[in-house]
Every structure is written in C-alpha cells, then in structure tokens.
Amino acid sequence: MTGNIANMAAIIIGTAVGMLFKKLIKPSYSETIMAGMGIVALVMGIMNVMETQNLLVSVVSIVFGSFVGEVAQIDKKIESFGSYIGSKFQSEGENSFAKGFVSASLIYCIGAMAILGSIESGLKGTHSILYTKSVMDGVTAIVFTSTLGIGVGFSAISVFVYQGAIILLAGQLGSFFTEPLIAELTAVGGIMIVAIGLNILELKKIKVANMLPALLGPVIYFMVK
Fold first, then answer.
1. Backbone dihedral region for residue 54 (phi beyond 0: left; psi -120 to 50: alpha; all else: beta)
2. Which residues have CB under 8 Å from 1's CB, separation 6+?
3. 140 lies in some domain
4. Total structural domains in the chain?
5. Among 8, 33, 95, 130, which residue has the least CB neighbours within 10 Å?
C-alpha cells in the first residue's frame, strides 16, 4: 500500500499548495491551464483507447455500462455525497466542493496508471507506476484546487479506496489480470478520460460517473470467454 499512500499524500499536499496560492493565480491563468489539462485529458484518453485489441468490447461495455449507471443515477448520488461533505465547508460552497470532489475523483481514479499501478503493487509489491502517478496528481491538484476548491483534496479518499481495492484484489486474483484484460480495461477507461476532457473544456456536459459500470464489461467478457 506504500504507493497508494504516497498518491493520497501527494493529492493532499497539492491541494494545500493550491489553496495557499489560490489568490495569486489569476482567473485567466486558471482558464488557460484548465484548457490545457482538458486537451491533455483528450490526448491521454485517445492513447488509452488505442490499447484495445477488440474495440467492440469497449463499445458494448460503454453502452451497457452507461445504461446501468444512468438507471442507478450514480452521478447524482456521487454529487449529492460531495454536496453533503461540502456543506461542512460553507466558505467554499456546496456546488464548488461537489464539483471539485467529483471531477478530481474521476480524473485520478479512471485511467491506465491507476489500474496498472495498483495491479503492479498488488502483484509485484513494487510501486514505480503509482509513484509516478503521485507526482502527476500532486501537480494537477494544485491547478484544480485553484479553480475548483478544497473538494479536490477529499478526492484523495476516493483514490485511496479505489486503488486499495484493486491492490488487494490483484493480490488475491493475480493470474486473472492478464495483459489482454488490462488492455481492454485501459481502453474503456480511455473513453471515459476523453469524456472528462470534454467536460473540462466545457464542450459537452457528460455524466462520466454514470459510465463507471462499464469497467466491469471487460472483466465479464474475459470471465465468460
């Protein structure tokens, strides 16, 4: 869990730095930086999608996963949870807190590095990927916090729980996480990262959290294959 703890700490530290220098960062700077992050998210997402060996698996996973998520109203429930926590920080405002919490949680949890890094930690006991991710997330947290507020810091909890679960699962089911499965999980995650990029750029409002069940698609596919 060393790498996971380092990742959580990096986000918290990044948030603290972001809050400290928040007033020194002009809105125009934040807008430009966020636009850059949105473009980076799009590129990362597309690169991850290209990892797929069977695009149909990704398409079917996203379609049915999104349907399940929409029926379950996952996005609404996560935002409600964020708003509830945000009510404890009135200076930030509920909406700002929820947006920071949800957006950061999704960006930090969905992606190849979160999955691969956690699997590496669980299977090999090494943490090189998560250490690299920690540095990236820490820097990103500074930028996000300057625009989205302290809610970004609480995403560290989501990251720790999510990656921790994968680490424990990988340790128990190491042989199940084959390279083909990881490739398809990466591809599905890539599609969601593209959606996150579109949200950051404010080109389209997409309820990315409702797509989370799609990550089960590749797992089910390889279980019945």
1. beta
2. 121, 164, 167
3. yes
4. 1
5. 95
